[in-house]
Specification:
This protein is of the alpha/beta class. Helix content is 45%, strand content 11%. The model has no long low-confidence stretch (mean pLDDT 93).
């Protein structure tokens, strides 16, 4: 039981108590405990029991429940609530727009116990008859349920990666005489994975015996393909191939529909031939080898050159951490800890971009705290040279598109990352007004997470990507590829247009802890799909190159 698991249990207990209308004071105390535990820098399981009780926000009853979970892996109070709550009602907690109080009304007054029933009630306009459910809320709930249903069985690349590695090892161990090559969405490095797939020389019967023995169910089967699903709700599939045709099968299953259609239209290649590698397939039609992660858009077949493909960005090309949050706002680590962690990783600089003053929920920096932080940065830079910390801010883009400080304060930052964090439910006109005003502000250096999307959770506000890219080109503004695996925003599908317009991309982790630095890798994986070269990525600039970039940005302000 790590801190996240313990915090999740307390959070769910608090919500279920609210749904049942039980002891609101105690429910709130469990919610506070969940928040406190999630932010702790040390693992509760590694602490002495008596020290747990003196933690701020942890009372006697809560402390005992923490110890119970560490010792047994269970929270009996939570189990009792789960037993007396319909599973469909608990599942409603996954739906955006309805909290425990509204769920209580849905269950007890509307007598609805499943998400499917709730969607049906929305379609019949039934929610608006109840207190607290207006037309707007009903529409939000409807859209959230539809989004939720669409996401079931889908996983972020980062979420599924560990499962894939474990399964891949298990397959090699169990079927040591067979060949297994990963293919499909995972090999193409898609940001959301619907299914893990392999090409194999094993037989359908052997696979069936192994997976059914391990409690997997068969979900689909043909003469040369079989898929399974286990208790984790992950779909896994296998293309059966002879050893002679394995590279032909691997190639065809590692391409998007668009790519393979364009390939088949252009080339009269022999799919039944015994190829010794995928490289030989490309050689046979005299096209430079295109890696699987770039086999998405058909036009790359025409435009690919050896130079472009060889120069695609790699994780090792990241030279500095841009966009990070410290304990000055809502980060988990001190500025000094973050700088030292970056040094340990061999990086050359850190751009600290804590939240601005409007972000009260994140302890955004009021002016006097900006000045105090800058003083600490100056002191640390003397100690840590040649490594350098740059003064930045993630400035909220306000309702009218203006930035979150007066000019004299904005002038004190080396660079400004401008992002929208509030009033996310906007029309495209409203979103574009805010974004365009921010882009045209001479203090904006980087446009942060362009659409505000959260993969599998929130679609993000509607934007006109082409207009934004044109505006960034005209105003010398960099577009962030926010590398947090739940954001990956800008969508990689628009990066080639940005590069066409000579707009720099910046792969930034939006790190709220030193562990978050590693998210840069997920940004690199999707950037590779767009063919991003390190020369066009700001966080791949050396310290000297980055300092020159800052000079240009500061000249823009004059």
């Amino acid at each position: 039981m790590n801190n996240y698991a313990i915090a999740d249990n307390f959070s769910l207990l608090s919500k279920l108590m609210d749904i049942h209308g039980d002891n609101s004071f105690r429910a709130k105390s469990y919610a506070v405990a969940a928040f406190t535990i999630e932010k702790l820098p040390m693992q509760l399981s590694e602490m002495e029991a008596d020290k747990i009780f003196v933690l701020k926000g942890i009372g006697d009853a809560t402390g005992k429940k923490i110890i119970e979970q560490i010792q047994t892996g269970q929270l009996s109070a939570l189990n009792e609530y789960i037993l007396k709550t319909p599973p469909g009602v608990i599942e409603m907690l996954n739906i955006k727009g309805i909290g425990p109080k509204k769920i209580s009304t849905i269950w007890k007054e509307m007598e609805i116990e499943t998400i499917g029933e709730l969607l049906y009630a929305c379609n019949e306009n039934r929610l608006t008859r109840f207190k607290g459910f207006g037309e707007k809320t009903q529409q939000t709930v409807k859209e959230s349920i539809e989004f939720y249903f669409g996401a079931l069985g889908s996983y972020l690349f980062q979420q599924i990666e560990k499962y894939f590695l474990t399964m891949n090892e298990a397959l090699k161990k169990e079927f040591s005489s067979a060949i297994f090559f990963v293919t499909g969405e995972f090999r193409r490095q898609l940001e959301v994975i619907e299914k893990l797939e392999w090409v194999t020389t094993s037989s359908i019967q052997s696979l069936t015996n192994f997976f059914t023995k391990n409690n997997f169910e068969i979900t689909h089967q043909t003469d040369n393909y079989i898929s399974f699903k286990g208790k984790e709700n992950v779909r896994i599939g296998f293309f059966i191939s002879s050893k002679e045709k394995i590279y032909s099968t691997l190639f065809q299953t590692s391409c998007s529909d668009d790519f393979i259609q364009e390939w088949n239209k252009k080339f009269n290649w022999d799919a039944s031939k015994n190829y010794s590698s995928e490289q030989e397939i490309f050689d046979s039609v005299q096209v430079p080898f295109i890696p699987s992660f770039q086999r998405e858009k058909g036009h790359i077949i025409e435009s690919a050159t050896i130079r472009q493909l060889e120069a695609i960005i790699q994780p090792k090309d990241i030279k500095g951490i841009i966009h990070s949050h410290s304990t000055w706002s809502d980060g988990m680590n001190t500025l000094e800890e973050m700088a030292n962690a970056a040094i340990d990783k061999g990086l050359e600089y850190l751009v600290i971009s804590d939240h601005s003053k409007t972000a009260a929920y994140a302890q955004g920096l009021q002016v006097e705290r900006v000045l105090a932080q800058h003083q600490q940065i100056d002191e640390l830079n003397k100690q840590l040279a040649p490594f350098k910390i740059f003064k930045s801010i993630e400035s909220d883009i306000l309702g009218d598109g203006s930035l979150d400080y007066e000019t004299d304060i904005l002038n004190k930052f080396d660079i400004v990352i401008a992002s929208i964090h509030s009033n996310l439910k906007m029309t495209e006109d409203k979103a574009m007004m805010r974004l365009m005003n921010a882009i045209e502000n001479p203090f904006t250096s980087i446009l942060g997470h362009m659409t505000g999307r959260l993969l599998l959770s929130r679609n993000g506000y509607p934007v006109n990507h082409k207009k934004i890219i044109d505006a960034c080109a005209a105003n010398n503004v960099v577009i962030e590829l926010n590398a947090h695996p739940r954001r990956l925003d800008i969508d990689w599908r628009w990066i080639d247009l940005a590069l066409e317009k000579n707009v720099l991309i910046s792969i930034d982790p939006d790190a709220h802890s030193i562990e978050g630095f590693d998210d840069c890798r997920y940004g690199v994986l999707v950037a590779q799909k767009a063919g991003l070269m390190k020369e066009k990525n700001l966080s791949s600039f050396s310290l000297v190159e980055f300092e020159k970039f800052i000079v240009v940005q500061q000249q823009k302000r004059k």
